Structure formats: C-alpha cells, structure tokens
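Worked example

This section walks through a single chain of length 394. The input is the sequence exactly as stored; nothing has been trimmed or padded.
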Amino acid sequence: MTEHNTHHKVVVIGGGYAGTVAANHLRLRTDVDIALVNPRPRFVDRVRLHQLVAGTGDATVDYGTLLGEGIELVVDSATRIDTAARTVRLASGGALDYDHVIYAVGSTAAIPSVPGAAEFAFPIAEFEAAQRLRARLDELPLDAPVTVVGGGATGIETAAELAEQGRMVTLVCGGCLMPSLSAPGRRYVAKWMSRHNVVVLEASKVTEVRPDAVVFADGGMRPSTLTIWTTGFGVPKLAADSGLRTDALGRLLTDETLTSIDDERIVATGDAAAPSGQPLRMSGQGAGPLGAQAADTVLSHVAGTEPAAIDLALLGTCVSLGRHAGIRQLARKDDIAINLYIGGRAGARIKEMTCKIGVSKIRREARKPGSLAWLKGGPRPEQSFPTGQVVGSA
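Given that input, the structure is written out below as tokens.
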C-alpha cells in the first residue's frame, strides 16, 4: 500500500470545545480517520453550567449538530494511552488503534482540601455535579442561606443567578473579587452584588464546611444550608497514568507546537495542555483556536512538515450577572485588563453572544474545516520547563 492511499488514524480524547474543533479541523485531509472519545453522549456547554444550576438555561448540545461527516463518536472513557502499542485503552475493555492522538481531556473540579468541603459542599465544574446541585436547590426554600465559595467567574455567575431569583446568597472570595478584572470592573460587579443583596466577603477564607454552616479563618461562622464550591480546578490523570510527563496539576507537557515532549504522536490541547510548562489561561476563548492548532500540528506531522508554534491573543473576559446584566472586561492582547469595561444589558448581550459563538464556531468548523480564525498574539516569551514540576514519567 502506498503512502497516498494509506489512511491515518487519529483518536481525539475529549469532546469539549477544543476536542470537537480539533476533530472537525482534521477533516482538512480526506485520508484521516477520526474517532472522538467522550464519556457523555452529548456535548456539555460548560459556560452555561451556572444556568443549568439555576434552571435558567440548558447546558448540553447534540453531537449530531456539532461533528462533521465521517467522525466516529465513541461514548466511552479512555483509561490509558499505550504508546508502545499505539492504542487507546477504554473503560469498556475495548481499544482504539492510532497513528496520532489529540489529548483534549479538559479540566475537572479539584478535590478541596478544606475539612468538610468534599463531604458537604457541592462542586459545579462538571455536568453531573451541576445536575446534583440543581436537584438540591429544588429541595430548598428561597430563604435558605446559600454560600458560594470562590470569587472567580464561576462563583460570581452562580451567585448572581441565584440572587436574581431571590435567594439569600453569600459570596466568599478568599482574597480578591475576580482579580483578572480591572479595578473599575471589580467595583461594578461589587455594586451589582450589593444591589441584589449578595453578601460579599472578599478577604474571608473558609477553613471548614459543615452540613449547615461555614467556618472562617478568624473563627467566625455563618449559617449555610447549601455550600457551593467553585474554587480550584484539576485535570484527569490519564497522561500521568500513561507514563507521559505532566506538570504539577497533571497537564501534559508539550513544546510550543502542542506536541508532547515524550512522544510526537501525541498532541495536547485545551485545559489539559502545558506548553513549555506554562499553560494558557483556561478559557472558552482559547479552546477553539487551541483545538485548531492541535489539529494543524497533527496534520503537519502527517505531512512531514514543521508545525507552527502557538500564536493566540487572549483579550479579557465576559461575566454574566444574572440574565439581565453582565460585564465585558477589555484587555490587551496579553490578557492584561485595562481600565475599560462594558456593563449592564450591553454586557449581558455580549456575554450571551460569546456563549453562542463558542458552539457556532464548532458547527462552522464542521461545515467548513479550516474556517476558524482568531486574533494572533505573536510569539510567547521564551520559556523553559520549570524545575520540580514534572510528576509523570516517560
């Protein structure tokens, strides 16, 4: 069989924003067989999980509307990448042969180390956790005290959704209210919270979670019928379990083309990639471009050409404040916030448009592979792998 009629098998592990874009983008070549492995039969629109929790929106999409023709969806979980045999082992007992792997396993909620948090607090970072939280909220009266731990975007959005419904909400930031916002942006969010009767404890830190209360570092206590934990993220251990080197969190270590430093047949993307040991900020904004980048790297390896390095600008963030307000924080191309934001209903419209674009980009890539475009940020500063952070083994 000649090289011309040899089909190249690519297994994409993970069907989130980056993985679905990557799978669709691979269709630029007609001689690539693509299998997408995902543990759920539907796509999880993670930027809407706080809406699922509050009952104000859905957070899943049919893969049939997202994946291009010829992509095989394998509803299963990868348990190991056998680099010697070039197979991906599955939880069902099956296996998929590969020529290349795109590692797009995404991120998960971190197991909190605060006493009682794992037992009594509800995470929100994954679909099943959000469903459990939704069910628990349905059992509670509106006047039951709810504590949201975490002053980042997820914590703010969750607290705002519940407050808008008239719930008694306390937001515990453990430091600064969303430090990635500009000072004017933080003041805007704080004012919105105050107007909607959210108690914001910016500097307070939760040191214990009880079934009916949270305890703070200063010994104080606050009643909490329901505690929602939104701080801290982790990643699946698949890379380390497969003998591949990772950073301290478990993200696969790659070079600037997203190629594993251990095996050029494995390319990482999205939240689970650590290029040069310095991962990009976890964001839906970056996931699509990184997915396309990963696919381009695989296609370069297949073609025997040199893959390109990451070239992506991140430009601030959008945060919803309930269904009728939001904030679009503007930033430089290096993601550093400037003292300019768009708030109110305009901010809400921009946030909703951003959420819709995340899914529409996937669909457009399915219809026309290679259509995804993004703003370039230029070469990243020269970096090296930090010492003491390699926890996997080759």
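What to look for: The chain has nine helices and 25 strands.
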